[in-house]
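dumping this here before i forget
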Amino acid sequence: MELRRKAMQVIDALRRHGLDSFVHGSVARGDVTKNSDIDIVIPYQVASFRIETALREIFPTFMEKLIVQATPQHAPKAYIQVDEKLTVTFPLAKLSRLEYEFYGFGGVVRFDQLERGERVPGVDKRLMFIEPTERGHFESQVIGRESVVAKKLGVSIEAVQQRIRVLTRRDEVGRTGVYLKKSLESDESFEDVLKKIADHDPVVRGRIRWNT
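structure:
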């Protein structure tokens, strides 16, 4: 409940600034543990100063600001690590359909759903399908039930298959590196730093140009 209350506080602050967001993952599904984090996502491009302004109403400082691009094909994303438990993420280039569906795969809830105490189905990093019940949740394997899981989550079968490939490979070879990971100074803007990176990196520059 504490994690959900904090998620509501952040989403409400963003909402007051005209920013639509949701919480993603175990907090949305309800299968939280002592290691669970709060992952707030703004799933569309927006000027980063608007997000930082909203967040600073309740958090005067941030732990870290990062630009991360998982692979050359993925959109670069901004990560504001508010504290050890709370991260706010937003894309710095247009998300592909599969990138957007990634969030639905893990489960998402918005402010009104948090207010009502709703929990939603989704898949965790073990590739277990989590279905909330009145007294907890039910777990089942995703592999072998891809089409059923896709239908229940409202995502494409391609999204489910992609996540299976990524998470299975992670189990087999361990966590792999990312294409780009850049830490920002507190007074640097995400857009300015990304532009400097793109000026010297044709891969990043090409991915940003998906927007045009």
